[in-house]
Target: Cell division topological specificity factor
Amino acid sequence: MGMFDFLKPKKNTASIAKERLRIIVAQERSSRGAPDYLPLLQRELLEVIRKYVSVDVDAVKVDLIKDGDHDVLDISVALTDERATVG
Model:
């Protein structure tokens, strides 16, 4: 906490909830046009990654992004600092 944080206006819970709802709606809209194989791909990637490192279910994100005329498969894996191998 900074020394001058008290000068910043505090967000009320309604505005925080509104921001979170916007994020959820945007995420739902982006996944509507997504191919139906993405959830299966995400689960299978998680299984393979878990063979080597310990990760949560939410650690693997798979998205399909439009880049001009091409579709780009964006795969993101959040690793913790503790990269303990699973054996």
